[in-house]
Amino acid sequence: MNSPASDQPGSLRDRALADLRYIRTTMANAAAFTAVPGRALVVLGLGAVLTGLIAMRQGSALAQTRVWIVDGALSALIGTAATLWKARVARQPVLSGPMWKIALSFTPAMLAGVVLTLRALGARELAALPALWLLLYGAAVIAGGAFSVRAVPAMGLCFLMLGGVCAFAPPAWSNPLLMAGFGGLHCVFGTYVARRYGG
Question: What's the pTM value of the predicted model, to 2 decimals?
Fold first, then answer.
């Protein structure tokens, strides 16, 4: 009795090749967010340290807040551009797979931060902003980190802890804690990601 066509050697080879293609695609998608740009995180961290030093020289809480807002806006642009560039170099899809999932997970907390920052600026209620920024950024990184390597949600957890400290610390600690978070944590985890996963 002849074997079915699906059991012929050629057919088996085609199925095996198709399975290998599927495995390769799945692994590439699962690894896509090693495309988190480690070097860019270091750049953002160094920029945050510089921002903190500039903020220390400001004469009012409002002026300090404005300096940090400028840093946040620049960091968002640099981080987005670096992520897109690394994804392009790695030939990873931007509008599908893990890259899209992490963007959808990361964005809501960041948008909440923007809205609450605008509200606080309008009401001149600035004291809670540093803790708010650290906490919401940490929450965003943890949410996005669900589709990334372990270092990413670990960094988010560290931001959450710093934000918790900042929420109950004296106001004089706010600027150093922002420097420790957006400066120090970005540098430490960025260096790790760059060395372990490239870029």
Answer: 0.80
